[in-house]
Amino acid sequence: RDACRWCRSGAVVGWKQGLMTLQPAPQRISILGATGSIGLNTLDLIGRTPERFTVEAVTANSNAEALADLARRHGARHAVVADPDAYKDLKAALAGSGIEAAGGPDALIEAAVRPAFGNCSALFCAVRNIFTLAAAQRGTTILLANKECLVSAGRLFMETARVSGATILPVDSEHSAIFQALDPAQKDGIDHVTLTASGGPFRTWSRERLAEARPEEAVRHPNWAMGAKVSIDSATLMNKGLELIEAHHLFALEPDRLRVLVHPESIVHGFVAYRDGSVVAQLAEPDMRTPIAYSLAWPERISAPTPRLDLAEMGKLTFERPDLDRFPALGLAIQAMKAGQGAATVLNAANEIAVKFYLQGRIRFPDIAQIVENVLEKQSHEGGSEPNSFADALALDRWSRDVARSSIPELLERTG
Ligand code: NDP
Q1: How far is CA 7 from CA 22, 28, 163, 183, in A?
Q2: What is the atom index within ligand 1 of the atom nearest the CA of 34?
Q3: 63 lines ligand 1 (CB under 6 A)
């Protein structure tokens, strides 16, 4: 007799060769950040596999109309906007649908922890710390796309997940690749783990040209369609630095075992080099639906409507070392990973502020890394505090954002 691997429950569907077989009930998934690029891809996959997945809750920040449309189309039970001002619009858009609407940060936390079917809900998390943390404290299965929560409080977050019994499944394509290539039974046999980077839209640009790079050029990623923040992070290579820190926590790997290689075709997403000389890699066309499908169905596999990889057609794959002179953000992230949790918290918060200012056209492209460096230096001069609780991490995050904001006029004055 088979039981649902998620919740040890299921519906009896018939008899086969004299044995009772069970059809697992569809798994209910709550999607935090449903209106974003990752959320929409996830809903696309869920919509194609109704026998396996149904939507419990969908959330967004303020995009009430798009959220209501998604909730109706996917038969969600609940829809939540984090921004309380958007609640009225959401409620109006869902009138008569039977879908429960809610607004505000507390409602979002509730969506993150709501029991979906005994203990078998999964949370697809593409938004920040606190909501993901609430789910981790409840012991939920978390399909984690958002990297900032592991970067800014990874040690504490993984410890919380361990204590509560939460399962964290990586969604980021590089971490999904490592998750697929890394055999936990052979952890002692690992020499190093490499995450690949496309190099972003400015891979071949000179320093002089980079100084003039405009936000609309930076968000135009050559291989991936992504939200604005992660696109800018890809252009500075900070994204790869954040991913190194993410991998450090997810796979409990020491910083010295983690490497980055630029691979412009974005076909090899990551690989594990073992001590015996073997290198195990994961390859796929660059389409987020592949890693999302892997995390949704793990440890099984489901179909994803992605382009199939044709290596003969491709002919060759190329690799090069990252240039830390032109892309100093990656070097800063590596330093922060080695320095410890406090530096990583500072790096993440300062970078978010710098990217925001860049997207608003108020600073230049190289200023992003400069601001992050300034804030890291200030933290180091002030003793480099290590957060021992989420409250500490939050306080350090706020401090870093304030310092980043206040360093901007000074920076503009210095650079003219
Ligand atoms: P988007 O900017 O496209 O979407 C973000 C989503 O989160 C939207 O639904 C948005 O709602 C919601 N949101 C934004 N701010 C808040 C808030 N304060 N409270 C609650 N909800 C909020 O981002 P992506 O989907 O591209 O990325 C999501 C995460 O996944 C990021 O952490 C990114 O680093 C990571 N990631 C993304 C990849 C990609 O290919 N896109 C690849 C790997 C990781 P609204 O529409 O109302 O603004």
Answers
A1: 13, 11, 19, 25
A2: 9
A3: yes
Tell me how far apart the alpha carbons of residues 167 and 101 are, in angstroms, rounded to a whole number.
28
At 270 the pLDDT is 98
The count of other CB atoms within 10 Å of the CB of residue 370 is 19
Give dist(CA 294, CA 70) in Å, integer: 22
> For the chain (length 416 residues), average pLDDT per consecutive 10?
33 36 73 90 94 92 97 96 96 97 90 55 53 75 86 90 90 96 93 97 96 93 78 96 96 97 97 98 97 94 96 97 98 97 95 95 96 96 85 90 88 64
Using the atom order of ligand 1, give the atom closest to the CA of residue 83. Answer: 19
36 Cβ below 6 A of ligand 1: yes
* Radius of gyration over every alpha carbon of the chain, rounded to an integer in angstroms: 22
Residue 391, judged by CB atoms within 10 A of its CB (0-12, 13-18, 19+), counts as exposed
346: which 2 tokens? 């500072």
Q: Is the peptide bond before 299 cis (omega within 30 degrees of 0)?
A: yes
Q: Ligand 1: distance of its center to the CA of 126 in Å?
A: 5
Give φ, ψ of 90 to 5 degrees: -65, -45
Q: How far is the CA of 35 from the centre of ligand 1 (A)?
A: 8
The CA 147 to ligand 1 mean position distance, Å, reads 10
The reply to whether the predicted model has a pTM over 0.85 is yes
DSSP 3-state of 384: coil
CA-based nearest residue to 146, from 137, 138, 136: 136
288 within ligand 1 shell (Cβ under 6 A): yes
